[in-house]
Amino acid sequence: MDDLPVLRAGDADRDALARDLREHFAAGRLTEAEFGERLDATYRATTIRELDALRADLPDPRPLPAPAAPRELARRRIYQDAGAVVILNVGCVAVWAAGGGGSFWPEWVMLVSGLRLLRDGWRLLGPAADQAVPSRRRDRRRLPR
User: Fold this and answer.
1) Which residues are CB-neighbours of 75 under 8 A, at least 6 positions away?
2) Rounded to whole angstroms, how far apart are CA atoms 143 and 87?
3) Rounded (10°) CA dihedral 102, 105, 107, 111
4) Least crowded by CB within 10 Å, which of 23, 32, 37, 116?
5) Do residues 123 and 130 lie in contact, with contact meaning Cβ atoms separated by under 8 Å?
6) Where does the pLDDT of residue 137 fall: very low under 50, low under 70, confident under 90, or very high at 90 and above?
7) DSSP letters spanning 65-107
8) pTM
9) Reduced to 3 states, what is the DSSP secondary structure of residue 9?
10) What letter would DSSP give residue 8?
11) How far is Cα 74 from Cα 16, in angstroms, rounded to an integer?
C-alpha cells in the first residue's frame, strides 16, 4: 500500500467524511469527544490516506439498496421484451410499406412475436410463475458453444 501514490484531499472529500462522521455520531458509534477529534483531524487532513484512516474502523453509513424482488425483475423483463416486439413489428411494417404494400405479410411476424410475448408474460407473471426461467436463459447464454 505504501507504493501507491499519495493523493491530495479536496474540500469535497473532507466534507463527505465530515457528513459521514456526523451520521456515525448520530447513530451512537462515536462519543462526543471522538467526534470532535475526528472532525478536527478531517479538516486538517491533506491526503486521502489520512481521511481513510479516520474512517477505517467505521462502517459505510449509507445502506446498500435493497435488491429487486423476483416479481419486479420479471416485470422489467417483460417490458424489455415488449419493447423489442414493438420495434420488430414496426420495422416489418416499414419494410412492407417501402416495398409497395401488397399482401400484409407482417401480420405473421406480429402474431408469432405477440404469442411469444404472451407466453413469456404468463410464465413470468402468471399465477404459477416460474421465476427460474430468466436465470436458466441467462445461464444458457453464458455456456460455451
Assistant:
1) 124, 125
2) 28
3) 170
4) 32
5) yes
6) low
7) PPPPPHHHHHHHHHHHHHHHHHHHHHHHHHHHHHTT--S-THH
8) 0.46
9) coil
10) B
11) 37
Domain ranges of the chain: 11-55, 70-142
The per-residue pLDDT for 144 is: 57
Cα(137)–Cα(68) distance, integer angstroms: 19
CB 117, CB 85: distance < 8 Å: yes
Other CB atoms within 10 Å distance of the CB of residue 24: 18
Rounded distance between C-alpha atoms, residue 119 and residue 107, angstroms: 18
Neighbours of 119 (CB within 10 A): 11
Cα dihedral 18, 22, 27, 31 sign: positive
Q: Report residue 52 as a C-alpha cell.
A: 481513510
- The mean pLDDT value of the chain amounts to 85
Q: At what angle do helices 70-98 and 133-142 cross, to 10 degrees?
A: 70
